[in-house]
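Weekly puzzle thread! Below is a chain. First person to post its structure in token form gets bragging rights.
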Amino acid sequence: MKITTIGIDLAKNVFQVHGVDEHDQPLIQRKLKRNQVLDFFVQQTPCLIGMEACAGAHYWARRLQAQGHTVKLMAPQFVKPYVKANKTDAADAEAICEAVTRPSMRFVPIKNIDQQAVLSLHRARQGFVKARTAQANQIRGLLTEYGIVLPQGISHVAKRIPEIVEDAENNLPDVFRQLLVRLRAHLVELDRQVQELEQQIIVWHRSNEDSQRLEKIPGFGPLTASALVASLGDAKSFKNGREVAAWLGLVPRQHSSGGKPFMLGISKRGDAYLRTLMVHGARSVMRVAENKDTPTDRWSTNMLIRRHKNVVAIARANKNARVAWALLAHGRDYDVEYERIASR
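Winning reply:
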């Protein structure tokens, strides 16, 4: 019998494999060590392989695709309902094998090496930004204990420390002055790391046609455009722009029953970092929307009359996500007058 579908439960060292034939009859259930995985699949005829979208999944997907297999990645929460009884590696592999064949299953686009590289830059930058904010807040807290309160804004922290250290009338102990110098040096280094990573992202952005296309959307910059392009992978893997907005968590959650729809706040599914960039970009253009005469800006201005600004920001981010999908899926350039022309 020929194996048609295989489910792999990924791990660091020991992988569990579950394979079935065209009648869903199990043909293979075994464990593979990491160095045995590629040799095992070389011996298999091309088939459908399912994996959870977890650590290392995109790497293994690319390697197995190179051998002629069809690989599909799934979010772990969509696989969990197919696990029968207790959770084991074998049960997980069986559940993955079953879930990958479901016609209604939603799959995760497989990222290439370049997309993973730029997303790594974004993740590293995000970590440095959090560390920079934490360091600034720590300095503020320590100074407050000595009765010194700094103005709002992270830029004031590094600027004010030298004069605080040199001020002989604030009665700060010498040990604490030395500590402030050390903490400021760390803060400045973190800021330098953030700036350097931003420059690397901008370089990638300028070399990518799709990322430059998205930058023309109001509320998009090099960071948002590059992160969205790298995260989406192939935009055509989404049926429409609404799927992209839902994938980003920019649509309401539902708790409907008995034919009565009940809408809650946004679902907050997907990548929180990417959603944050989208929402902040929407907020930035909303501040000047009333001074512009584009269809989208007029829509935002009218919405602000009826809805809270936070609701409008999410709605604007949702609209931008749909526009971004249309540009990427159809290879178009952003035209601010498109809606006006289409409505004629």
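Puzzle host: Confirmed. Bonus trivia for everyone else. Residues 174-207 form the longest helix (34 residues).
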